[in-house]
Design brief:
This is Endonuclease/exonuclease/phosphatase domain-containing protein. It comes from Micrurus lemniscatus lemniscatus. This protein has one domain (about 10-95): Deoxyribonuclease I, Chain A (4-Layer Sandwich), CATH 3.60.10. It starts with 8 loop residues before the first strand and ends with a helix. Helix content is about 25%, strand content about 30%. The chain has helices at about 45-60, 80-85, 90-99; strands spanning about 10-15, 20-25, 30-40, 65-70. The protein is globular and about 45 Å long.
Length: about 100
């Protein structure tokens, strides 16, 4: 992630596995927590639970989550999903986190 020097930012969290990076970035009139993720193919329920707990711990109001969720949102548009026989959907813990 590249951020210009003129933009005030602070590294908040990096997980040991390199799958989560959290930065506070000060935009005009507000602070935003940017969460960059690279979700694993396996054990997603556990990953999103840990992610949710960490975000809740930081008590931020303005949050932007960006990254690779490693799920298929529309199987009709995914040309490889059915060939591999895996139907990966967004875990319930992730959906709950977005509420």
């Amino acid at each position: 992630v590249y951020i210009k020097e003129e933009i005030k930012s602070k590294l908040v969290f990096v997980d040991p596995e390199g799958r989560i990076l959290m930065l506070e970035i000060w935009l005009p009139h507000k602070k935003v927590l940017f969460v960059f993720i690279y979700a694993p193919n396996e054990k997603q329920q556990e990953f999103y639970k840990k992610l949710h707990e960490k975000i809740a711990e930081l008590e931020q109001n303005n949050i932007c989550i960006i990254g690779d969720f490693n799920v298929i949102m529309d199987y009709q548009k995914d040309y490889k999903g059915e060939k591999r026989g895996k139907k990966r959907i967004l875990p319930k813990t992730c959906i709950e986190m977005f509420k």
